């Protein structure tokens, strides 16, 4: 009987040590030598390919998983199909967290993909006249961003207190009597013939052979709050692999790559 009790006690002790010790951490921590990062196709994929090279020098293998839309990288992260993602802005992240209840955290600033105003009909904002049509994205985050862009350009003024949920209905002043039309963000560049000018995200501009640094008639500035970030599950924000990923991204080598490759169309903000 005593021998049996001793074996039972030993077994319970092992279970207790496993629960309190390294076992709990290993079930949630990201592998220190490899991290899977979700990106959207295009410029974020290009930049992360360079980050991958830099991270390898620090003993971290970066595996990229490329997505074609703006929702799946967060879904995949929340469902632990990937370890991190790099493609979104803070406002986009906050909206997603609020709507989905996802426990995600930004861990490092990356680049600003400046939203710009583009046109096939005018070469400067001074040419805008009453009744001209301005296109903007129809999703809440990018619609707000476009409205703030128009406001910084002096085209409109939003209602006081409109805040981060402002829509076209919150335009308080429109001195040029412009008409604002909400369109699908991915299609706006293809519809420039149908509007006088339009606000277009950098990723979609580049895909449609528009160079933000050269072709935009007005461009978002570096101090915009809509810069991009690396995002992870909150439980992994202090993991070694995450720290190495951020360190690799925020290097002079990556900064030079961004500046040389995109010629001012994508701006490093670290």
UniProtKB/TrEMBL annotation:
Keywords: Lipoprotein, Membrane, Palmitate, Signal
Domain of life where this protein originates: Bacteria
Subcellular location(s) per record: Membrane
SUPFAM superfamilies from the UniProt entry: Periplasmic binding protein-like II
Signal peptide limits: 1-24
Lipidation feature positions (S-diacylglycerol cysteine): 20
InterPro entries: Lipoprotein_NlpA
One term under GO cellular component: membrane
PROSITE patterns: PROKAR_LIPOPROTEIN (PS51257)
Plastid listed as a keyword: no
UniProt topology in membrane: Lipid-anchor
Family listed: Belongs to the nlpA lipoprotein family.
PANTHER family, sorted: D-METHIONINE-BINDING LIPOPROTEIN METQ, D-METHIONINE-BINDING LIPOPROTEIN METQ-RELATED
This protein's name: Lipoprotein
């Amino acid at each position: 009987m005593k021998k049996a009790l001793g074996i039972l006690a030993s077994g319970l002790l092992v279970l207790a040590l496993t629960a309190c010790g390294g076992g709990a951490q290993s079930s949630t921590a990201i592998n220190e030598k490899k991290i899977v990062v979700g990106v959207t196709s295009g410029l974020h994929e290009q930049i992360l390919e360079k980050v991958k090279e830099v991270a390898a020098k620090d003993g971290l293998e970066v595996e990229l998983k490329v997505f074609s839309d703006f929702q799946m990288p967060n879904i995949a992260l929340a469902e632990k199909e990937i370890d991190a993602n790099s493609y979104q802005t803070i406002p986009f992240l906050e909206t997603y967290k609020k709507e989905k209840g996802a426990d995600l955290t930004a861990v490092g600033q990356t680049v600003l993909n400046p939203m710009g105003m583009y046109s096939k009909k005018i070469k400067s904002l001074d040419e805008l006249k009453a009744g001209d049509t301005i296109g903007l994205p129809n999703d809440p985050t990018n619609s707000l961003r476009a409205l703030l862009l128009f406001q910084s350009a002096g085209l409109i003024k939003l209602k006081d207190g409109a805040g981060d949920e402002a829509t076209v209905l919150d335009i308080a002043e429109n001195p040029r009597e412009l008409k604002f039309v909400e369109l699908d963000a991915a299609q706006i560049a293809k519809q420039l013939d149908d509007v006088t000018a339009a606000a277009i995200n950098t990723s979609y501009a580049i895909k449609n052979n528009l160079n933000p640094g050269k072709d935009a008639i007005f461009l978002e500035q570096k101090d915009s709050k809509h810069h991009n970030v690396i995002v992870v599950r909150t439980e992994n924000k202090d993991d070694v692999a995450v720290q190495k990923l951020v360190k690799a991204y925020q290097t002079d080598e990556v900064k030079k790559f961004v500046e040389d490759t995109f010629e001012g169309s994508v701006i490093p903000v670290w």
